[in-house]
């Protein structure tokens, strides 16, 4: 089956003054099958949001290729890109900053329909009402303004706007990080329902591993601009092969003291800056298992089981229970 | 003076309101014993931060303590003048906030900022303030403290900046540290390092900690007791083992289900 998205050796570098370069994305690969929900996880500054934006061509690529539904986005002129835009939508972290405070919800939702010539006038308004219902809000809200809603409701409105054009890909960039816990779970359930019903692929960008578990079937782990591991969600959570993935999972604090106070083997220090990416394996400066080879030779992604890839010279045992 | 059997902090019937609006904190009562770590957990708008700011008398403009008392080692903080409170802040009671970047002066070198904290309370921090600052930067495990001391906040990572905040908070040996989401803005692999560091400093100096957070995992990891706040009130309190392993209040149960 043809992939919906394929990103190959993508680089996004930001040159600074003094000849320095921020290597935000530094040779990342990513594929998404049609209708697949994939989580892209990593800590702040790892390049996950930049990679997601590069996929939508919201930031320019420094190198590499981005294919969407067989079309080379990386070399399409803006004019040819525009009709494809309705196929790929994005939802951001802060719903208030993404909604025009002066527009009624009805306006916000009919705009994409009219821009892409899908509906207009009364018909568009009715369709907007159905979109609101689809995300669990009353169509009566069409006449209200964004400030009249809670954070969770606003994010539902952003999602309604994103699915208005029936996209094949939804990029969700930390869509629930600003919301309270009890609201997060509801938005995750909504995203999962929409993905299944609309057969829409989701790239879920987050630092929250718990969220990934609720939404995604596959997970990519990014560290300092590169993928370090890719695996089916079940497998990643039970048998991580990369020491960094293991550290991310191990750092999650359980809500019960009897579990939270277990001993942990955590990496030392802070994440290095993307201005000075370490030689060899990028994680070697913090890795508890680093050896000489890790300091000089950069590991490539290679198979570590069914649908499982890891970029590590000495991956952790991925044997699951017999 | 309080003894080990008397609470260091006793908040009784605290009610906080803005203007004529309904109170954001309602009849909140709790105690913190010397050396104890107490967590206040709740979602945004629950009143947990307003409770902490009331103790420091740092409520935002328009906010006021309508009723209730705040006794610190027997002295009534709620009746203190602003001048008296300035002696308390950074001395007997210090604070660590979520975002170390906005708490640090961007145009002042790190060493000077930490030293200034000592200069404001000469009675509590004996010796040359700059030397004390260097000692504290070492105590919070910053690599090469002499070099870090000459840097500006923007030259440090988020984790390093939070270590600097902890150095400042502990330089005058506070009896109570109020920490408002101290690890929330940090990456998960760095968050635990900071929580460990707070525990280490707290044990060395026998400081009591009031930890404000929305993260139940952080409470489970660090606190002795926990207060669960919802809509301005404490709905459940007790040891973390009681409350988090066997929650009784439906709201606590819901909160825990959301993270299970």
| Widest β-sheet, arrangement of strands of chain B | 6-7-8-3-9-10
User: Total number of β-strand segments of chain A?
Assistant: 12
Kindly report the name of the CATH homologous superfamily of the largest domain in chain B. P-loop containing nucleotide triphosphate hydrolases
Estimate the helix proportion of chain B, in percent.
25-40%
Mean pLDDT over all positions of chain A = 93
The name of the CATH architecture of the largest domain in chain B is 3-Layer(aba) Sandwich
Mass-distribution shape of chain B: globular
Question: Could you state the order of secondary-structure elements of chain A as H and E?
Answer: EEEHEEHEHHHHEHEHEEHHHHEE
Overview of the molecule:
The complex is a heterodimer of chains A (322) and B (260). With 322 residues, chain A is an alpha/beta fold. Chain A folds into 2 domains: 5-87 and 167-310, P-loop containing nucleotide triphosphate hydrolases (Rossmann fold); 96-166, no CATH class. Chain A has helices at 48-55, 78-85, 95-98, 105-115, 121-134, 151-163, 181-198, 209-215, 233-238, 243-250, 257-260, 292-296, and strands at residues 5-15, 21-32, 37-41, 63-68, 71-72, 88-91, 169-173, 201-206, 218-223, 226-232, 302-303, 309-310. Chain A has an 8-stranded mixed sheet, sandwiched between helices. In chain A, strand 9 and strand 10 (226-232) form a beta hairpin. Chain A is globular, with a radius of gyration of 21 Å. In chain A, 43% of the residues are buried. The mean pLDDT of chain B is 93. Chain B has 2 domains: 1-92 and 175-260, Rossmann fold (3-Layer(aba) Sandwich); 99-173, no CATH class. Chain B is built from 11 helices and 10 strands. Helices cover 38% and strands 24% of the residues of chain B. Chain B has helices at residues 48-56, 82-88, 100-103, 110-119, 129-139, 145-149, 158-170, 188-205, 216-222, 240-245, 250-259; strands at 9-18, 25-32, 37-41, 63-72, 75-76, 93-96, 176-180, 208-213, 225-230, 233-239. In chain B, the strands form 2 sheets. Chain B has a 6-stranded mixed sheet with strand order 6-7-8-3-9-10, with helices on both faces. Chain B has a 4-stranded antiparallel sheet with strand order 2-1-4-5. Chain B has 260 residues and is an alpha/beta fold. Classes of the chains: A alpha/beta (322), B alpha/beta (260). The A-B interface holds A 43-44, 180-182, 184-185, 207, 210, 247-248, 251-261, 264, 266-267, 269-271, 273, 286 and B 43-44, 157-160, 187-193, 214-218, 220-221, 240-241, 244-245, 254-256, 258-260.
């Amino acid at each position: 089956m043809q992939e919906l998205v394929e990103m190959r050796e993508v680089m996004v570098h930001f040159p600074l003054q003094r000849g320095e370069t921020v290597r935000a994305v530094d040779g990342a690969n990513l594929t998404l099958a049609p209708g697949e929900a994939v989580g892209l996880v990593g800590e702040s500054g790892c390049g996950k949001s930049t990679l997601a934006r590069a996929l939508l061509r919201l930031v320019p690529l420094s190198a590499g290729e981005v294919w969407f539904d067989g079309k080379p986005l990386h070399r399409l002129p803006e004019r040819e890109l525009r009709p494809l835009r309705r196929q790929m939508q994005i939802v951001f972290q802060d719903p208030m900053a993404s909604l025009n405070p002066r527009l009624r919800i009805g306006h916000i939702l009919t705009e994409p329909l009219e821009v892409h010539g899908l509906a207009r006038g009364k018909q568009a308004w009715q369709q907007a009402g159905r979109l609101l219902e689809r995300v669990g809000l009353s169509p009566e809200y069409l006449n209200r303004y964004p400030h009249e809603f809670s954070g969770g409701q606003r994010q539902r409105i952003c999602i309604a706007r994103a699915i208005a054009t029936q996209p094949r890909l939804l990029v969700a960039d930390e869509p629930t990080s600003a919301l309270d816990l009890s609201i997060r779970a509801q938005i995750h359930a909504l995203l999962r329902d929409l993905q299944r019903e609309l057969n829409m692929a989701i790239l879920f960008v987050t630092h929250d591993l718990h969220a990934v578990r609720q939404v995604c079937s596959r997970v990519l782990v990014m560290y300092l601009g590169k993928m370090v591991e890719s695996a089916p969600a079940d497998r990643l959570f039970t048998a991580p092969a990369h020491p960094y993935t293991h550290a991310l999972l191990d750092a999650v604090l359980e809500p019960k003291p009897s579990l939270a106070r277990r001993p942990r083997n955590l990496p030392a220090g802070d994440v290095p800056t993307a201005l000075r990416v370490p030689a060899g394996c990028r994680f070697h400066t913090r890795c508890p298992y680093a050896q000489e080879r890790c300091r000089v030779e950069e590991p490539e992604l290679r198979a570590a089981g069914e649908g499982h890839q890891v970029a590590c010279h000495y991956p952790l045992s991925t044997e699951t229970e017999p | 003076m309080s003894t080990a059997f008397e609470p260091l902090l006793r908040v009784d019937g605290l009610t906080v309101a803005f203007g004529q609006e309904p109170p954001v904190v309602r009849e909140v009562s709790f105690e913190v014993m010397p050396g104890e770590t107490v967590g206040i957990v709740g979602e945004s708008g629950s009143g947990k931060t307003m409770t902490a700011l009331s103790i420091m008398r740092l409520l935002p403009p328009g906010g006021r303590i309508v009723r209730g008392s705040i006794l610190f080692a027997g002295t009534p903080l709620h009746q203190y003048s602003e001048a008296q409170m300035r002696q308390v802040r950074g001395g007997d009671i210090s604070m660590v906030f979520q975002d170390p970047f906005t708490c640090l002066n961007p145009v002042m070198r790190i060493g000077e900022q930490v030293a200034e904290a000592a200069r404001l309370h000469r009675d509590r921090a004996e010796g040359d303030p700059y030397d004390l600052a260097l000692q504290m930067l070492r105590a919070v495990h910053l690599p090469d403290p002499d070099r870090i001391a000459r840097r500006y906040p923007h030259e440090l990572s988020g984790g390093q900046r939070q270590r600097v905040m902890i150095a400042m908070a502990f330089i005058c040996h506070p009896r109570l540290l109020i920490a408002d989401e101290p690890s929330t803005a940090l990456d998960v692999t760095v968050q635990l390092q900071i929580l460990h560091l707070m525990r280490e400093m707290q044990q060395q100096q026998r400081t009591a900690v009031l930890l404000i957070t929305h993260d139940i995992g952080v409470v489970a990891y660090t606190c002795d007791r926990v207060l669960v706040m919802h809509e301005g009130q404490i709905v459940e309190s007790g040891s973390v083992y009681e409350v988090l392993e066997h929650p009784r209040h439906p709201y606590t149960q819901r909160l825990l289900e959301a993270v299970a």
